[in-house]
Amino acid sequence: MSTSLGLLTGAITSLLDPQEVAQPRYQPTVETTWQIQLQGATNTGYQADLYILDLFDTPQSVITDLQASGRKVICYFSAGTYEEWREDEGRFTAADKGGQLDNWPGERWLNTRSTNVRSIMVDRLTLAAEKGCDGVDPDNVDGYSNQTGFPLTYDSQLDYNRFLFNQAQSMGLAVSLKNDVEQVADLIDYVDFAVNESCHEWQECHRLLPFVEAGKPVFHIDYIYSQDPDGHAIHCQHMGSLGYRSLTLPVALDDSYRFSCD
After folding, report:
1. Sign of the CA dihedral 80, 85, 88, 90?
2. Residue 14: alpha-carbon gap to chain centroid
3. What are the pLDDT digits (tens) for 145-154?
4. Which strands, in side-by-side order, build the sheet including 34-37?
5. Alpha-carbon distance 247 to 217, whole Å?
6. What is the rounded CA–CA span in Å between residue 169 and residue 190?
7. 21-35, 83-97, 152-166: the lowest-pLDDT one
8. Across residues 221-228, what is the average pLDDT?
9. Gap between the Cα atoms of 129 and 168, Å rounded
10. What is the distance between the alpha carbons of residues 10 and 177, in angstroms, rounded to a whole number?
11. Which of 65, 93, 184, 224 has its CA 20 to 30 A from that of 116?
12. Least confident of 19-23, 166-170, 183-187
């Protein structure tokens, strides 16, 4: 190829692809401190590196202000359940919706094999990218181990989760593995961090050690030690020995109290 032809080809390529080189997605570390709040006016006063906030309910201004102060924002949404109060709830068909979740009124399991469900979730990821979220925390990605009303299996769940995580990362979003400890070995390479609720109550915290070994953080939530200072201290010592970042929080995740192990 002649020099002039090479220059012409380069010029055409530049015209056809004017976008800047995409920035690498956010990668939290095992040293990252965090906060999660899904209800109520967001308390931005914590000295936390990362905030997990509701995708739909969090105002754009809160995300922008947190990022302007050097914090990262991870946007939470349910990827495995229908919630009747969400703005896109009308897009789910009757066939998409399965059994009710225990203790969570207005919430039903989804058929995650459904192409319609997957399309809606891609749009939720797109919303997260448009709002400037640094990543996402898709919840309820373990339907196969629950009574959903659908014949979901380990393999069908794995297929859905990999689909979801690949879509998120293709949009430049960091993505979590929420609970679903049985699939850690099959999914750790598809996610950037873990968010876990109550692994200590089920004696399964050891299942998340591969994350720390890979340099990926485990953000842990405890719901039982708010009225037990001695128990909380022992709990924090245990979480610290594993390398996990643990918070004791109300089940409502409404910031009515917060006890950090950091």
Report:
1. positive
2. 36
3. 999 999 999 9
4. 34-37, 50-54, 72-78, 135-139, 174-178, 193-197, 218-222, 245-248, 259-260
5. 14
6. 9
7. 21-35
8. 95
9. 9
10. 41
11. 184
12. 19-23
Tell me the average pLDDT across 34-51.
98
**CA neighbours closer than 13 Å in the CB half-sphere of residue 93:** 10
Q: Please provide the CATH number assigned to the domain covering 3-260.
A: 3.20.20.70
> Which sequence spans correspond to the domains of the chain?
3-260
Do the beta carbons of residue 240 and residue 218 sit within 8 Å?
A: no
Amino acid letter, residue 19: Q
Q: How confident is the model at residue 2 (pLDDT cuts 50, 70, 90)?
A: very low
Cα–Cα nearest to 206, from 216, 218, 215: 218
Q: Which residue type, as a one-letter code, is found at position 246?
A: S
Token pair of 218 as six digits: 């485990």
Check if the beta carbon of residue 194 is closer than 8 Å to that of residue 177. yes
Residues 6+ apart with CB under 8 A from 256: 250
